Amino acid sequence: MAPPLPGPLAHLAPLLTHYGYWAVGAVILVEDFGVPAPGETILIAAGIYAGAGQLNIVAVAVIAFVAAVAGDNIGYLIGHTGGRAVVHRWGRYVFLTPERFRAAEEFFTRHGGKIVVVARFVEGLRQVNGIVAGTSGMPWRRFLVFNALGAALWVGLWASLAYAAGTHITAVYDEIARYQRYALVALGVLVAALVLRHVRRRRHRKGPGDRVTGGRDG
User: Fold this and answer.
1) Given Cys at both, which of 9, 30, 106, 149 links 5, Cβ 3.0 to 4.6 Å?
2) Best CA proximity match to 41, nearest among 90, 75, 66, 5
3) Residue 113: predicted pLDDT
4) Cα 112–Cα 117–Cα 118 angle in degrees, nearest 5
5) Residue 206 contacts by C-beta under 8 Å, 6 or more apart in sequence?
């Protein structure tokens, strides 16, 4: 029997129950050429099902890897052949506005091939990774190598963690939810401390001599 999927994973249970591996491949494939779909979420859910004995973890990993690489290469082809004109005309239908695309392209150009690997783990960049690589003129073979590496690391990480959780996912999720509030408070304190540190450093760099003084020269 498949384990109950908690939180945001729950809505994927019917999809996995009825379509299994097909659902994993299809959702990851369409997400990776720009369609807003829960690719990472379904990979995690499938890994949990595999950990509970409902799916084969090797099959899940292989299908997810192939779908991820294929989806990104479809995106690359779209970007390479259609360029910015396609993005500007159709991008809004997949929430890829010209502003978002421009920011992603600048980030991509600045960081080069390594961003293809990193983008796999970043929501928003993962969906436009291939398209941006195609429009920016990155050589296809170079893109393919970095893309395959990123996909392998991405699939390996999430599939392994989800598989390890398996039937214990509800208990794991409950523990995460239990301590989430404390984590958010700690994060808020850390951010406040960094901001305060930055402000103090700026004041220290200015020094007393930089302050504007009143009065007239004698």
Assistant:
1) 9
2) 5
3) 72
4) 90
5) none
